[in-house]
Amino acid sequence: MVQCEVTIQPGNRVIQASKGAVLLKALIDAGIGIDGPCGGQGVCGRCRVRIEEGEYNTEPTAHLTDQELNEGYSLACLTLLEGDLRITIPPVSAKAKILTGAGEDELVQRLSLGHWIVDSRTKKL
Predict the structure, then answer these.
(1) CA torsion sign, 26 to 8 to 31 to 89?
(2) FRET label pair with 118: which of 46, 54, 61, 110, CA 20 to 30 Å apart?
(3) Residues 6+ apart with CB under 8 A from 41
């Protein structure tokens, strides 16, 4: 498989993903916190990213205004990698970190799978 490099701002982080992969899945697999409550179905419009440069293929959506489209915005769940990309994840799309006793890798895995981490003070005796 041909690999593509995705450079993510802020942070100047670089990840590898397969050509033809969905950008949202590549970001989640790499542990990048991005909001996608609809599970990548393209119905919520929360996984917007700004594509600065690179090769990609995307589908039109009613969730983006004409101005946003002209500025290079796209929904990560509707964007397929065709080559190397440089993107910016705006603050509105960044997923906030939840502080728990879990390690960061475990937390990212649980959040990406849709599991909630609950540590109740109430215990059954």
Answers:
(1) negative
(2) 46
(3) 77
